[in-house]
Predict the structure.
Amino acid sequence: MKKVRDCTLDDIPFLIEKAEHFNDRYYGIPINLYKLANYLTGLIVAEQGVVLRTDTGAITGVHISDPCRDWEVLVETAWYSEGRDGLRLLDAFEHRGRELGVDEVRMTTLEVNAGVERMLMRRGYTSIETSHRLLL
């Protein structure tokens, strides 16, 4: 499969496998598979959910209305691929944002993925906030 397509409920095992790869590589915090499966199910069946995949990766997001402004946003919630499908997924995600009529696509990158950050900046993304965490 070279193309990007919408996920169905049948894709949940694939999405869980990709989430586990991502988690093992970057977080190492145990995944609750029941919670993850429920979350993915919700994204796939919800009108606001966007869940796209290729053979090697996936991108997920939620279409939200800004609670304070007349502004529609497609917020990426996960993006993971192996090989060169990452750009194909991003292209499709941005295209879906245009189809939905959003004002903005919002992406998140990890500190360790400076190359991804640079690529997003070259595509016209701007940095709007920085996230920090405190492990307790």
